[in-house]
Amino acid sequence: MKKILLFAMLFSFSLATMAQLQTTNIKNLKKSKDINVTQKNNLPVPLINADKSVTEDVNRIFVGTAKDFRTVRKEDTRAISYNAELDVISIVYVLDPTTYGTNSTDMGMVYSTDRGATWSAPLNIINNGDTHTNDYPSGIVFNPDGNDNIEDAYGVMQGISHVGGDWGYKMWGSMSLAGTNQDVEISHNPDNIEDGYWNQYGLTQVENQARCLNMVPQGDWGNYQSAELQPIVGDFEGTDFLWGETDLYEMDLVQSTEDGKMAWIGGYQAHDGGIDMAWSEDGVIGYMYMVGVSSDFPSGYQPIVYRTEDSGDSWDLIELDFLADEMQVLLEPFIYANWKGDLIPSIFESASVVDVNGNLQILAATKSHSADVLSYPDSIGWGWTYPGDLMNLIVDADGLNNIIWIDSLNTSNLGDDDEGNYAGNGWNHRLNIAKNTESNQIFCTWTDTRNTELELNVEPDVFGWTKEVYSNESLDIVCLTEGTLYEKFYYFTYGAERAYLNEEGKYIVPFMQCITPGEFASNGGNDPITVNYVTGIEFDNLIVDGVNDLSNISSFEISQNQPNPFTGSTVIEIKTQSASAASIEVTSLLGQTVYTINAGIVNGSEKVEINAENLNSGVYFYTVTIGNESMTKKMIVE
Question: Does the model's pTM come out above 0.85?
Fold first, then answer.
C-alpha cells in the first residue's frame, strides 16, 4: 500500500505497539554457540542463518581491512560514494598497518569499476601518520571536467587529524586513481578558536569543485559551549585542489544555565550525528544543518537549517516551524493522551539530499517532547510511540513544507547506552538517504531489529523505503536483508548518496558494512575490522522518462544495449505484444536530447542500432516510446 502522509495512523495502535515491547537486559541474552571465541564486549552475538534460504542478490564482497572501528564510528561521514559519470564506486577507511605495511593512521581508498564485483588495491591518499593521528574519513571519486578516463579521475578524502590532545586540525587529501599527483593539506584552528575540534561532512563534487562542511564545537571536551558551521570549497587546479575556507556560521543553540553546555545532538548522543550538507545537481541551491535546540525560535532537537541560492556565496537561516497549525495536525496522532500542549519532534539521527525541486529531503529518526523546551528543559526526551518513528521532512525556501511518516522503529539505539556499546559510540540505526541521477526519486535505508521482544537494536537488518518527489507517492517499506546469510549482522553500515539503475530497471544503492561475526564477538576497541561491500540493496524504479510509473504492466520490453560500454555503435532489442510504432530518444546525463531515432513499426522483436560516433565519452540514456508508454535504460560510451 502506498503511504502518503500516513499520520492518520490510529493512536491506539501506537499504544499497542508500546505495550508489546518488553524490557530486556542485553547482558543476559543468549549468545551464539556457533562462534567459539572469547567475547570481549557484553553484547549478545546473533546466530548466523546458515540453514535458512539465502537471498542470492544480497551478498557480502570483501573489500579490505580497516585499522579499527574509528573508520565507521561517525554515522554522517561519507565512507562509500558513487560517481555516476564514470560508473565507479569508492570506499574509504583507515588502513590496517599490519595488512598493508602502512603507518598506523594512513587513510586510503579502494574503488570498483564493475559495480562492486572486484576492488582495487588501496590508494594510500593521506599518509601523514608520522606526525598526525587521522580518523573518521570521508571520500569520493572526483571526475574533472571533460575527463572520460577512470585513471585520470581523483580520489578525494577528508578527515579529522590530531596531534596529542589537540583535535583542531582539518585535513584534505587527493590522488589520481592511477596513483599519481598526491596532495595532502592540513589546516589548524584559527587563533580565535580554542579548545575545539573539527568534524567534516557532506563531501561531494559540484561541477569542477569538491565541497564539504566543517563543524567545530568549542569548549571543554564533551561540554561544548558554542559551535560553528563552515562551508569548504576545493577548486580543482589540474593536478590538485585549492581548498578555500569560507565564513563561520555560529549556531545559536540553547545553553544550560548550570554549566553552559549547549543542546545539540552530538552533545547528548556522544556520536556527533545530525549534521549534513547537500546540494542540487547544478550546485546553485544548497543546505547545511546541525541538529540542536535553537535559541532563535521555539525548537526541539531539530535541524537548524541554512540555505543558499547562490552556490554558497551567502547563506540564510530557515525556521522549521513545527508549531504551525497544519504541522500540529500531522503530529497529533503521536501525542500522548495525557499530554496537553504543542509538540516538536526530537530528532536523534538524520540524513539528507536535495531533490529536483531544490527542496531538502531529510530522513529523520524522531521522538518528541514539549515545545516549551526553554521553560521545561527536563521535558526533553518525552517520547511518543517507543522507541521512535522514521519521518521524511521536506524543507524549502520558506521552511518546513511537509512531513511524511515512514514507519515506527522496533528497537532503540545502542548509541545511547555507553555501557552496552561495542567498541565505543556510533552503533545506531545508521540512517542513509540516496537519490537517482535525475533527483526525482529518493531511497532511504536504516537498520533495525525485527524481533520486537528485544529492547535494543542488537540484531540489525537493513530496511528500505522509496518515493518519487513529484507527488510523494511511495512503496511499502521492506526488510532487504531478511533471509540472507548474515541477517541480523548488519552493524556499522553506510549507503552511497547516489543510486544507479541496473540492467533489470531496478535502482541499486551502493552499500557497505563493517565487522564480521567473529570480530564482533572477540574484538576490542583497537582491533582491525573487515570492510565489506553489500550487493542487492535494490528498489523499484517509480519514474520513467519523468512520468510516475507505479505499474509493473507494460506492452513491450527493451533489452540492455550490447555491447556496453561501447564505442562506435551498440544494439538494443525491442519486443512488442502487437505491431506498434516505436521511437528512441538518446539523452545526456543532464537530460539534454542528443538525437532521436524512428524505429518504425515493431511487430514481435526487432533489433535497433544506436550510433555514438558523434558522442563524447560518458553516460547516456536511451528511451523507447511506444504509444503512451516509455522505458529508459542507461548506456556508457567509451
Answer: no
